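Pair request: fold both.
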Amino acid sequence: MKYKFFFFLLLPFLYLTAMAQTKQRPTLDDLMWGGTNYWNLQPQSIHTTWWGDALVQTNVNDVRMILDAKGKKLGTDGQVLFDLAALNSVLDTARYGKARNLIGTTFPEGTKTVAKITLTKAIVAYDWKQKAIVWSLPLQRGIGHQDFCNASRSLAFTKDYNLFVTTSDGRTHQVSTDGNRELLYGTSVHRDEFGIHKGTFWSPKGDQLAFYRMDQSMVTDYPQVNTLVNPEVRIAQPDPDKYPMAGMAMHKVTVGIFSPATDRTVWLELGDVTDRYFTNLSWSPDGKTLYIMEVPRNQKRCDLVAYDATTGKRLKTLYTETNERFVEPQNPLTFLPWDDHKFIYQSERDGFNHLYLFDTNGKMLRQLTQGKFEVLDLLGFNTAKRSIIVRTNESGHIRENLYAVDFKTGRRTLLDNGVGLHRASLSENGRYLRDTWSTPTDYRHIDIKSTEKKQTVSSLLNAENPWRNFTMPEVENGSILAADGKTPLYYRLVKPVDFDPTKKYPAVVYVYGGPHATNVKESFNYQARPWEYYMANRGYVLFILDNRGSGDRGFDFESCTHRHLGKIEMEDQMKGVEKLTSLPYVDANRLGVHGWSFGGFMTTNLMLTHPDVFKVGVAGGPVLDWKYYEVMYGERYMETPQSNPEGYAASSLVNRAKDLKGRLQIIVGYNDPTCVLQHSLMFLRAAEDAGTQPDYFVYPGQGHNMSGRDMLHLHERITRYFDDFLK
């Protein structure tokens, strides 16, 4: 009996041991984009879109309503609205080809039974009740920057540097004719800073199109060479970029408004466009006024300016905001759906990004949100309840949660569970939102939430960890005080697989540290990266800290590095190193560092400043001298080399190549348009002159980040470097 009892007690332990033994060690092919097994391990998810206030699941072969407009779940599998076969049976397949899947289906006409599907050769609208194509818009080959307007069924697009508009009658209007590589129409400008990500802006009715025109003829060509354009051509082909470096000439932007009805363009009276940024274009609800947030080159002021959309005349400056460091508008105006004469303006004027209510005369009526937290996203409105739906981090610096803000009182109601990281999309009238969320221990949930009370209408998905069958590390989270002795900073600590507290392990600090970014959030495993899982399986400790100067913590936290990038950030990272090396299982004599872009700058900076601490570093796509970086970003944080020579000299790592002692590998994309090759080449030249020995690796044909199989090659190379010189 005693033997049997002991055996049954032992069974669970034997089972767990057997389970542990059957788990696989993940490879880079399993973990990284471009890997042969990566897409087989993608977590379970569902594609949905809103049809009014009803939720529709869009699949490869069919489209089905899963929640009706009252939030009622329609059975286990939902109600099929139409399928791929039905659509293809009425398509002019000879002209447009067959539809291959329905995942991207949308519903542009409210609650009408009309679905919009984008094919390779056309955009079509399918009425599944009538079982007919009710309209179609042909697509030309070789077009870019497509911007479709549901209201007018018109498409703006670019081709050969020029801008075109195809209207619902199928007629194509050529808006510009003189476009070339130095004169661009309808594209993003100012190198995607200030929240800019496109170059065309439809009016609410879709009868007018505002667009950017960018003259970059005065900007110096950076001499890129594309060695991979045509392998049969022996001599590499020039492929220059227009790259405005800090303190040098920048491009000039103007704004036009095109009317398809008249086939003419009105140009806004912007005045002198030299050294100015035109950002966050917004239309008034009646389409009569265009608003622009205008920022001078020194970025210490923002003017909200109104223009007459018919004449292009400058009407007035509604509001001006100034700051001795910088003002950085990131969001266009958001008009109230119940009042065309009032809008929400987002600003950091009180130190945190918040919502402010203005009228169209420029009078600030009141502050809608306030507190020592950031409004991270304005999702929209519940029009019936007159509430504003937002995502903020007021529940904690590394949390992101959803709230309804009462328009009248400003009272905020938490809509989710108050933990983790949440992303959401709002139904047409704002009654419901699709909440996709995770926590450190939950990989992915999808719930439908009410915006009128804290209630889960339906739970759609609880996805399992896609790497559950692999050996995975333990991930911890904590905080330390910054170098100022008072500011909390958050870190992630990844322990080696099969962790033994009596052993000494090599450790790698992974760092970014720059503005608008964070590495540590309360999502799954505190936002750990797949490469960290791989390194933990190879016996490394990984440590990741968000220093002052990184994002989502308010203006002072992010801008304290102004004019001296790399100084405060590095002081905070070294506080993290103190924490790391205090752990009894970390071998302080085997400490490495790795980062990309701003993180490459930080990696090199740490290697040169603390050569007795960091033995090995891998710096990817690094900024090594800020005077070689672009105007918009570089001058915001460093001003110009002419006005801040001391700051530029102190932050230049080229000047300090002589201080290298450990093993530093620099990795770049040969055709990087963001952090140009000059950074690394100048550093190599300085190192050669000083007799120091960095290692260098280049990816021909790649830009600032690697893609495809090169992503695997890159991470194998990074790993090998640490294995060779740190392990």
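--- second member of the pair ---
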Amino acid sequence: MKHILTKIHLLVLIGFCFFNCKTDHSSYLELADGTDGNWLLHGLNYSETRYSPLNQITATNINELGLDWSLDLGLKRGIEATPIVKDGIMYLTGPWSIVFAIDLRTHEIIWKFDPEVPKSFGEKGCCDVVNRGVALYDNKIYVGSFDGRLIALDSKTGKKIWAVLTVDQSKPYTITGAPRVVNNNVIIGNGGAEFGVRGYFTAYDANTGEQKWRFYTVPGNPSKPFENEAMEKAAKTWTGEWWKFGGGGTVWDAMAFDPELNLLYVGTGNGSPWDRNKRSPEGGDNLFLSSILAINPDSGELIWHYQTTPGDSWDFTATQHMVLTDLKIDEKNRKVIMQAPKNGFFYVLDRTNGELISAEKITYVNWADSIDIETGRPVETKWARYGQANVDVAPNFNGAHNWQPMAYNPNLNLVYIPARETFSNYGQDSTWVYNKKGFGTGVGWNLAIGSVDSRPTIKDKKATISGKLMAWDPIKQKQVWSVKQDNIWNGGLLTTASNLVFQGTADGKLTAYNGINGQLLWEANLQTGILAPPITYLVDGVQYITVITGWGGGYGMKNKHTNLVLPGTIYTFKIGGKQQLPEAYPLYERELINPLWELDKSKIVEGETLFWQYCGTCHVVAEGGGGVAPDLGYSFMVGNDAFKEVVLNGALLTNGMPRFDDRLTEEDIKNIQHYIINVVSNKKQETSK
């Protein structure tokens, strides 16, 4: 009788689970926290804390931390990926969305998948052909390709299982962010707000690739039916004919998930174009730009939203890293979501309903005095929108914090932020006209930087430019410690149970700090700029630290680390590692060009306009060497036919350098070169004085 009852109970339980329990095998992702030695999710866990419970590496023994192995990936340009590690296998991405599987015991490539993104798509991206990583689920690897596909691969072989096109490729959409897997759905967004697209993110069935739902972040043409009530509500906050410009609001990076509340949190991007006067001339908050959205991941329904920068006019995206945790605030336990978006404030929200708990400045900020705790809105300074004058705005489009992930240590209740002090001069461009011809560079995007009008300029003597690694108390909303850095474009963060904080830097060093007081404990010079965040994991019971070098990204396209663009390399450290660090690469002297042409001053003005429309996204002139894209002031091609072959006829298209024969004439090419020659000539005169 007892056995019969046991079988009945078992059948009842099976029946209950058939109808009520999760059958998507995703529960192990909900439990992922690094205690098993793996790094299974983009932020280590669904809360995206990047806090590892591993503690073999401590402040006491960190001087014994040494390089154990390295692997040259043979790829140039920026590497921003957070690797995924499961059972001794590492999965990561490089530029052009190439995926690698690495055996962590033999240190060899198991397989490599190249999605073969057409190199002509490189011009669709504002910020290099980077990729921030993959998702792993049910023996599948998911990657978003730069040209807008979501691809599922067999994790053992790297063979493609399915692929779906997630964007209209006739428009300047790209994918650089890592997918997330939630409740058997793969969630992916896109980029392109700079170039005139409408943002959205989409859920696809993890097994089949079938689209389950899509959420647009800004409203479309109001003459057509709105997709949902959220879009109908959002349209009331826009004016003019914004849909012709795309609107923006792209979801190109941050997400987090709370399984208990079953809420997916998504950060949205800037407007298209940047200046609200252009896209929404009668004002308005322009929902859901620069916002945190709480979404039901099963249906795509909006549950709540919080807009960090209403009516954004500065490229103050809210696509920056978000962290979920529980904090005791005013003697009350609160479920919170924390974010430091570009705009310079650190936000603590109630993640159940979006209520603002607190917000304070983490860097120098002059566009707003504070955040009104009652309304949740910024108290803007009267000149912040640069309507009557050109204005130094702090922070600028690079942000007080950009995509590089922060980390949260729950033992210390401290958030570590790869912050920076920045500012730029913003102004109205009365000549701006949206140009539908073509896509990407030259589409008529408005940076809102500088002015073509003779207007007064408001300078801010307090504004500076420098990097800053900082520890932030989210309860007291104040800085605990900070470390000043010369360069603003440093890598993402990792923190551990040993109260260590790891970061790679723009000058090529992997560093470790005491998370309590900010003391530098250890560093290793890897000779190549580091953007990617470090991770830690176990192999055969031994704790390792891995970081991937590879200079590039939006800032790195123009700004140099060294005179050499070096291949991306995986570097892995352990206590007792004995391998030699890479040797220093000597900087070599270069000379500004001496073109054969005589300067024609009549061509300079037109050449300057064309340069900033088509070239200035990636290139500088006579500013010290450039970054991934060369400084054209040092290019031997300027002043001869080679320049035309590259720019007009696509001689370097396989390297990702666009061809512009569909937009520029030979006369345009000559004008651009005369502008470059003029800049070089002026630079030489300055240095000779």
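Observation on the second member. Residues 1-24, 437-444 have pLDDT under 50 and may be disordered.
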